[in-house]
Specification:
- About 25% of the residues lie in helices and about 30% in strands.
- It is an alpha+beta fold.
- Strands 1, 2, 3, 4, 5, 6, 7, 8 and 9 form a nine-stranded antiparallel β-sheet that branches.
- A hairpin with a 7-residue loop joins strand 7 and strand 8 (about 200-205).
- Helix 5 (about 135-140) packs across helix 6 (about 150-165).
Length: about 220
């Protein structure tokens, strides 16, 4: 095995050269631009889970981050689903201002979104929950996400208990503590890696989530 030390870590670098990002390459609507990039990421066999995003929250002394999956994108924003009793949900309840990061490393791209998160309707959560695989539905019921777990065996036993209660093929009810969030963006930044670390960064911004107009600014790398 190779030795990992300060020098070897500092030597880890790539020269980005796949593409450029110019103002003439983008459309006026950042959601449409995001959908275009997401589509390209989904077609790239090197990108694992192109809808995976890093959700960052800040409700106290330290910000926290974790990976979640984007499950819808529309003209109003970005939707993901989770346990409403989890650490991320608790943080959102205290401070709904969050950040999303889509790290498409094989394409030398990333998208950073700033916005406010709010719960979607129970009907929308029900609709999505019904489309989840049976095993994922049972897992959502069995896991008290983010709380202390005494052992893996306890979780497995709880899972089996709910699997017996709601056997495969039966309707699994969505628990009230599980549902979706809509993130309404005020800033969407598109980042394209370039040579000599002279990256392209184009940021769409607006003052509030309900304003339809976006301005585009180029940022220093």
């Amino acid at each position: 095995m190779g030795e990992i030390n300060r020098e070897s870590i500092r030597a880890m670098r790539l020269s980005y050269s796949q593409a450029a990002l110019n103002e003439s390459d983008i459309v006026s609507d950042p959601i449409a631009q995001f959908v275009k990039w997401l589509g390209e990421a989904s077609e790239n066999i090197l990108v694992v889970e192109p809808n995976a995003m890093v959700l960052a929250t800040n409700s106290g002394e330290f910000p926290t981050s974790r990976s979640v999956l984007l499950k819808d994108v529309s003209e109003v924003g970005f939707t993901f689903f989770t346990n409403y009793l989890s650490r991320k949900a608790e943080a959102i309840s205290k401070n709904p201002k969050i950040s999303l990061l889509f790290p498409w490393y094989p394409m030398e791209r990333q998208v950073i979104i700033l916005g406010s998160a709010e719960k979607v309707s129970a009907e929308e959560s029900d609709e999505y929950f019904a489309t989840r695989p049976w095993a994922s539905q049972i897992g959502a019921i069995a896991s008290a996400q983010s709380s202390v777990l005494e052992s893996r065996e306890d979780l497995e036993e709880k899972y089996l208990r709910f699997a017996e209660k709601f056997p495969k093929g039966s309707k699994v009810p969505r628990p009230e503590y599980w549902g979706g969030y809509l993130v309404r963006p005020v800033s969407i930044e598109f980042w394209q890696g370039r040579y000599s670390r002279l990256h392209d960064r184009l940021r769409y911004s607006r003052s509030t989530p309900d304003r339809p107009d976006w301005s585009v600014t180029r940022l220093n790398p």
